[in-house]
Design goal:
By secondary structure, the protein is an alpha/beta fold. It is built from 10 helices and 10 strands. Strand 4 and strand 5 form a beta hairpin.
């Protein structure tokens, strides 16, 4: 069966000044998958997402999205191609309302589709609809995470990259966010998930890659990684 590769990362090498952060990283994301990158703090997970979305540059290799090279593309053009990034720490526009934040995410869309996109986001996140006039900086952590995801969804992404969506959230909210991720995937959105909560991430993913000090040291189906003794000891508390 022919594989439908959406994102193809080859030979990624990224530096922060003299610090060699990402070392010869390569992986693929197929259309319709949830793929997760797991690893300890400082392993390079967020750096990989920033490089894919054009915020950082790889010194070597290639990044292709639907067979189109995006290694040197500007971030706004990458979003236009259908790749959206929900950054670590949410990064909402604190002094803007919920509605204004969502509108900021719709810059790639024609004016006629913005209302429909916003209605979709409000249907998925009813809490945001209740607080649409509220300043984003006054929302709870969970509400800000929903807003950051909603803002990304306003661009109608084909691939949604999520960086630590569970960070700082109560367990009940974490479950809710992960249910939403699965719903998005069932609705046709491909997901690349970076997550400190490795067990939770692997429980919903199709495949996973383990990152250690900037290198991928393992890649397999999520179920295989959940059963792997080394992964268990290092990342799953057992």
């Amino acid at each position: 069966m022919k594989r439908n590769i959406m994102l193809d990362v080859k030979n990624m090498n990224v530096y922060y000044g003299n610090i060699y952060a990402i070392k010869d990283v390569g992986f693929q994301v197929e259309q319709g998958e949830i793929v997760t990158l797991i690893g300890a703090n400082g392993a390079g997970k967020s750096t990989i997402l920033k490089t894919i979305s054009g915020l950082l540059r790889s010194k070597t290799g290639s990044l292709s999205f639907f067979d189109q090279e995006i290694s040197n593309a500007q971030p706004h053009n990458i979003v236009k191609q259908g790749l959206a990034h929900v950054p670590e720490g949410r990064r909402v526009f604190a002094r803007m309302s919920v509605t204004e934040n969502l509108e900021m995410g719709s810059f790639t869309q024609s004016g006629g589709t913005i209302g429909e996109s916003m209605a979709d986001v409000f249907a998925r996140f009813p809490r945001l609809k209740e607080r649409q006039k509220q300043l984003a900086g006054t929302l709870s952590g969970g509400e800000q995470q929903m807003l950051a995801m909603g803002r990304a969804l306003m661009s109608k992404p084909k691939l949604l990259m999520l960086d630590e969506p569970s960070m700082g959230l109560a367990p009940l909210l974490v479950e809710q966010i992960f249910e939403i991720i699965q719903e998005l995937n069932r609705g046709g959105t491909t997901i690349l998930l970076v997550e400190q909560n490795a067990r939770m991430a692997l429980s919903i993913a199709h495949r996973g890659y383990v990152l250690e000090t900037g290198k991928i040291i393992a890649g397999a189906s999520a179920q295989e990684l959940l059963r792997d003794d080394t992964v268990k000891k290092a990342y799953l508390g057992g």
